[in-house]
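Q: I'm writing up a methods section and want to include an example of the input and output format. Could you take the sequence below and give the corresponding predicted structure tokens, formatted cleanly so I can copy it straight into the document?
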Amino acid sequence: MNKFIFIIILFFINFKSHAESGAGIEGGLAYGDIGAEETAQRIANIAGSSVLVEYDRATWYGRLFYDLEISNDTFIDFGYFMTGSLDAKYTLSGSSATEGYSFNGLEVSYGFKSDGFFFKGGVHQSQVDGVASITIGSTTYAAKASAEGTGYLLGGGIEEDKFRYGITYYNSLGGIEDTNLLVGYYGIKF
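A: Here is the clean output for your methods example:
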């Protein structure tokens, strides 16, 4: 599925029907909740002891995109996004556990623009990569896992000349319900 979407993106990158079509790059912050407080409470309930938890609320976000103008006020947006890792660390009586999740995927959306504002809605095929470890005494045990699936996205913002800034909401990343990100970004279109 990812290869098929990638081929479509490459096709449209080589096809410029209007002057406003173009590729670009965005960067910003992705905000997400990995459920660290709930995990800490479950660990505390099992262990019968308090658990100290430290966790990230945001990480970096990057996106490459190509906007294909359909008319003066509509466009199709193709993109590839990736994030850094949202991490959490749990500490209990000399033992510790960590977990981290990063996200990446392909997306396509249909958008409207008017007077410098734009709005879009679409779908993504994304992957969530997770890494976890637990340290007991001086021994560390590690594990990795990933999930892949589809979800939807909604976004909007302001575009002036070649520059744009806005927000995008990604639902069900990796096909996992309640795995969502809210992204704030700044970008440029070439």
